[in-house]
DNA sequence: ATACTTGCAAACGGTTTGCAATTTA
DNA sequence: TAAATTGCAAACCGTTTGCAAGTAT
């Protein structure tokens, strides 16, 4: 999906989350720990509903209610562990922010795939524009819509071996 | 607010809209005409609710229901007359697409102001990234969040030098 | 004890839609 | 007169929230 590689992090997501919660007078409960672990178990993009499903499929009985998931997502975002990247179908989509390099996305309108990319010139451009407008940037979201290489490929000769 | 200037257009928005509606087997009703006119009476960004308000304030009795406004917004978007640019407060924000040059936005998180800007290097960058990924771009949305010059300005007196 | 947290169900809010009445070609 | 359109109110749907019961310090 992407060749972006995680950068080395000194502290685990759980620890980082506990740290943040402490500063807010909150606690790292077992529910919150279950959520952080599940969230950082894979690098895929996800929305609230997908996360709830993953948590409900657990066999260890560590289910967490939908409300708690929503509350935790907000906290994970505030703590800098997650960031919201897009809203393709009116659902907020999240990805890892902590321990993962900053990047943007090509979004295929056909298959919905998110392709990550980085390009330094974007940051140069943003700095320049910010300076020109006396604007202090805190974040940005660049969504590039179109058709991915796979979907551009002519379908005439589709591999029928994919069918089972 | 912005020094982007409208480009010359051969056909009026109403005509363009009628043209599009025809191709869909639809009609340019008085309600739809009222809406297009109101929408293109000013270049400001707006959301559905603001448009409804503007239409309700009319003294000529040309009121249009909320549903019709929502339906027309979708049609105006499909026809290429409008485009959705941001979603600051969970409300879709629209702007003129037809007869207005392509640009992006700085979005002030404090006052909600949208500042338009253009920078050619963005397009160069997008072309490069698209080529690298075999991606065919159809559109993009760049939202830059932060604090505008106005909101950065201190409300109270701020000392420029550290006087001890 | 006090403060934080959870799960449930109800509320929220922007947007969409079913439908009967109305308008248009 | 058949097809499109409107306005109303209800539905929709992801998300948020009030609250009572539970848990940690």
From TrEMBL, chains A, B:
Fe cation binds at residues 104, 140. GO terms for cellular component: cytosol. Its main location: cytoplasm. Zn(2+) binds at residues 108, 111, 148, 151. Keywords: Cytoplasm, DNA-binding, Iron, Metal-binding, Repressor, Transcription, Transcription regulation, Zinc. Its cofactor is Mn(2+); Fe(2+); Zn(2+). Signal peptide: none annotated. Binds 1 Mn(2+) or Fe(2+) ion per subunit. Binds 1 zinc ion per subunit. This is Ferric uptake regulation protein. It comes from Symmachiella dynata. The lineage of its organism: Bacteria, Pseudomonadati, Planctomycetota, Planctomycetia, Planctomycetales.
């Amino acid at each position: 999906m992407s060749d972006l590689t995680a950068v080395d992090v000194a502290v685990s997501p759980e620890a980082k989350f506990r740290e943040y919660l402490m500063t807010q007078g909150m606690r790292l409960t077992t529910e919150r720990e279950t959520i952080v672990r599940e969230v950082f178990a894979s690098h895929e993009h996800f929305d609230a509903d997908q996360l709830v499903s993953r948590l409900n499929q657990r066999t260890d009985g560590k289910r967490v209610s939908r409300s708690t998931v929503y509350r935790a997502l907000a906290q994970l975002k505030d703590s800098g562990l997650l960031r919201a990247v897009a809203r393709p179908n009116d659902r907020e989509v999240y990805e890892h922010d902590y321990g993962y390099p900053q990047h943007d996305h090509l979004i295929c309108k056909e298959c919905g795939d998110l392709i990550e990319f980085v390009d330094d010139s974007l940051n140069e451009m943003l700095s320049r524009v910010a300076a020109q407008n006396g604007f202090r940037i805190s974040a940005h979201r660049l969504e590039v819509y179109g058709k991915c290489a796979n979907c551009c490929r002519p379908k005439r000769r589709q591999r029928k071996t994919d069918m089972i």
